[in-house]
Each structure stands twice: as structure tokens, then as C-alpha cells.
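Lab notebook: predicted structure, single chain.

Context: the supervisor wants predicted structures on file for every construct in the current expression panel, including those that have not yet been purified. This is the next one on the list. No modifications to the sequence; it matches the entry in the shared construct table.
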Amino acid sequence: MSNMHYSLNEISPIWLILIAIVLFVQGTWIFQDARKRGRFPWLWGLWGITGFPTPLIVYWLVVVRSERKRS
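Prediction complete. Output recorded below exactly as produced.
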């Protein structure tokens, strides 16, 4: 069985930068969209920068999809 645990010293700085950019863009997009829809933008934005892609999927299911059903 392979050991899949890495320390920060073993991960390339380029990967860390790319992950940080993806998380920042995702959190910013969710925050702006939630603010436009009036749906707790700070909550969604902060959660959006903690992981990928779970916050984006949950945001889509809870906010975007439910809003489309009302229309």
C-alpha cells in the first residue's frame, strides 16, 4: 500500500501557488455571486477558500439550483 502523506517540503512551490490561486478565485466568485443573490456572501466566500470543489458544488445545489426552481 502506498503512503500518500506529503509534507510541505515535498510539494513543489508551483503546486502550492496554483492551489492557492484556485481557492482564492473560487472563494471570490462564490462571494460575489452570493452577494448579488443576497445569500450570506461572507459565509459562502469564506467556505469557498477552504476547499475545492465541495463548497462550489454545495453552493450550486443550495443557492443556484433552488433559485432556478422558484423561477
